[in-house]
Design brief:
about 290 residues; mainly alpha
Length: about 290
């Protein structure tokens, strides 16, 4: 089998979920479907590993599969995140925000009436998360498939860590306040509202994966595309502000996400330089 690091970490994540689902099956609605889904992902990865031997093109294309799975895994966490802790912990996190900042931080940034331009501006940057991740992947893939492979491994590891936290630490975020203060917005607010209405399950607020992942992506983008450094870090900054301004996250979610992103960069950076820039540089699709 031609399993790479991303395959292994994805299989490990699914094995953890299979074990979790089996142990808590009495508390999980339709638990056989969860088992079937996670076992199917493992099977597909194993089949892909065999298929990579057929051609270099198939091998390269198969490296993209985790980007399809992230949203599915994310949705699944919302279905099983109140098995261990039966209630959302928002009261604690909102009180923590108020204790640290003296008031709910979104009111500092937006006020209670807001501004139509800023509302749309920050919703655009919140939405940019869904664009910048695949864009960075495409740029890295075009530059060097081995770089892309390393990027996807780090991205997957960070996502899976966030997802495990969400399962055991359910925090909904200040969505109720958002529904009260945001009405009939522009294009990007409407798009975000649609995404949350159709593809969101509550309970994935702490830490903010938007901030953690964007920090990691900004590091990769600014490191390998020097001319885009300002773009990446400004996008990271404005997205981090947007998570609070748009009332999707508490400020402590953002702080935790930032710390997690920094930790991911520091953890992977040493291995990244050694493995991807060393003399023995090898990739899954190298022949």
């Amino acid at each position: 089998m031609n399993l790479n690091a991303t395959d292994r970490i994805t299989i490990l994540y699914n094995i953890i979920l299979v074990i979790f689902t089996f142990i808590f099956r009495a508390k999980i609605a339709a638990y056989p479907y969860h088992l079937a889904f996670n076992l199917s992902v493992i099977l597909i990865i194993l089949l892909l590993s065999f298929g990579r031997r057929s051609s270099l093109s198939v091998c390269k294309v198969s490296l993209w599969y985790p980007l399809v799975l992230y949203s599915l895994f994310y949705y699944q966490t919302g279905l099983i995140n109140r098995v261990v802790v039966p209630q959302f912990l928002d009261g604690f996190f909102m009180n923590l925000d108020v204790w640290i900042f003296g008031d709910f931080p979104a009111f500092f940034l937006r006020g209670k009436h807001g501004n139509a331009f800023l509302d749309e501006f920050f919703h655009f940057f919140y939405f940019s998360y869904y664009l910048i991740i695949p864009l960075t992947g495409i740029l890295l893939f075009r530059r060097d498939v081995k770089l892309f492979e390393g990027f996807v491994f780090q991205l997957s590891s960070l996502f899976y860590l966030c997802y495990v936290i969400y399962i055991f630490l359910p925090v909904e975020g200040p969505i109720a306040l958002r529904n009260e203060y945001f009405h009939q917005g522009g294009l990007f607010q409407t798009m975000i509202d649609f995404i949350y209405a159709e593809g969101e399950n509550p309970g994935a607020a702490f830490p903010s994966s938007h901030v953690a992942v964007m920090f990691l992506v900004a590091w990769w983008g600014s490191t390998h595309f020097e001319r885009m450094k300002i773009f990446y870090w400004l996008a990271c900054l404005f997205l981090s502000i947007a998570t609070v301004y748009c009332m999707f996250h508490y400020a402590v979610d953002v702080i935790a996400g930032l710390l997690l992103g920094v930790l991911a960069v520091l953890t992977f950076n040493r291995a990244h330089i050694k493995h991807y820039y060393g003399e023995t540089r090898q990739g899954t699709c190298t022949k």
